[in-house]
Amino acid sequence: MTSKELEQAFKNELIRNKKSREIDEKEAMAQGYHINENYIDPDVWQYVK
């Protein structure tokens, strides 16, 4: 896997994880849990390289 392919795969996984978390957060909110909607994921790509 080239470095460009790794970066693209990493970005695709981030998008997939974000969508999954959004679904999980909506379900949790429907159950009455408080979710911090202002949370921003840290940029971890610099550590993956």
Describe the structure.
The protein is mainly α. The protein has one domain (3-48). 65% of the residues lie in helices and 0% in strands. The protein contains two helices and no strands. The protein has helices at 3-30, 45-48. The protein is elongated, with a radius of gyration of 14 Å.
Average pLDDT figure: 93
**Residue ranges: pLDDT <50 for 5 or more in a row?**
none
Q: How many angstroms separate the termini?
A: 13 Å
Give me the Rg, rounded: 14 Å
* Element-by-element helix/strand order: HH
Strand content: under 5%
Q: Share of helix among residues?
A: 55-70%
Q: Pairing-aware structural class of the strands and helices?
A: mainly alpha
Total helical elements: 2
Provide the number of structural domains. Answer: 1
The 3D shape can be described as: elongated
Number of strands: 0
Largest sheet: none
Would you spell out the secondary-structure blueprint of this structure?
Blueprint: H1 3-30, H2 45-48
What keywords describe this structure?
49 residues; mainly alpha; 2 helices; elongated
